[in-house]
Design a protein that fits this description.
Blueprint: H1 4-9, E1 10-17, H2 18-24, H3 27-32, E2 37-39, E3 49-55
Antiparallel strand pairs: 1-2, 1-3
Length: 57
């Protein structure tokens, strides 16, 4: 269940697999290497996904 404020203001989720994140060393390093995927509200979360949610309140 998603909180209604979060659902209403959702922009996108920056996503990376757990193993890729560990190999990169940090979320910021993965971001600088262009390894993050931008996923929308219809994305089905996979096991091992690490996500940073971007939203507007």
């Amino acid at each position: 269940v998603i909180h209604t404020d979060f659902e209403r203001g959702f922009i996108r989720a920056q996503t990376i697999g757990c193993q890729e994140l560990l190999a990169a060393g940090s979320f910021n390093e993965a971001k600088s290497k262009g390894q993050l995927r931008s996923e929308g509200k219809d994305y089905v979360v996979a096991e091992g996904d690490v996500m940073e949610f971007l939203f507007n309140v």
